[in-house]
Recover the amino acids of this structure.
């Protein structure tokens, strides 16, 4: 009888400890979700550049002179031309759209205005005639550009989608 009682009381204690651990984990997760939700309303100025990079070309759009060294490191021996620039104040769930010509459309959605590492999370999507061609969720440091690169036209050119947030 004493062995059975010891086993049952040990099992009961283990179940109580497990329930407390699960409860603490759920409480911690709900607090974290509550904190994340409080950041959803933080507005961010999100800027999206759509740039076509043409191999062998030497031209540089004058609008890109501030980021020319970065572009030349990213794609040496290319010329660069701005297709579209959009900038908007966004909160989580809002997006900005760029029409790029040739049936292409880029949409950038603010996912999280700030994460635990101090970065902004955005979703970049590229569509051709309404069909999704590319989708990437990226984490961008504040005040720093991030580029997504995709093949663009049949001439070997590439599409660069630059995203920045402040």
């Amino acid at each position: 009888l004493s062995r059975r009682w010891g086993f049952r009381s040990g099992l009961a204690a283990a179940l109580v400890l497990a329930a407390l651990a699960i409860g603490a984990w759920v409480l911690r997760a709900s607090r974290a979700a509550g904190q994340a939700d409080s950041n959803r309303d933080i507005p961010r100025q999100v800027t999206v550049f759509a740039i076509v990079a043409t191999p062998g070309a030497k031209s540089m759009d004058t609008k890109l002179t501030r980021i020319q060294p970065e572009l030349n490191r990213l794609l040496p021996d290319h010329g660069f031309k701005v297709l579209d620039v959009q900038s908007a104040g966004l909160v989580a769930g809002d997006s900005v759209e760029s029409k790029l010509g040739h049936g292409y459309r880029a949409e950038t959605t603010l996912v999280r205005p700030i994460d635990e590492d101090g970065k902004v999370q955005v979703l970049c999507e590229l569509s051709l005639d309404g069909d999704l061609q590319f989708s990437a969720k990226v984490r961008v440091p504040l005040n720093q550009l991030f580029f997504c690169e995709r093949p663009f036209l049949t001439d070997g050119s590439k599409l660069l989608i630059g995203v920045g947030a402040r």
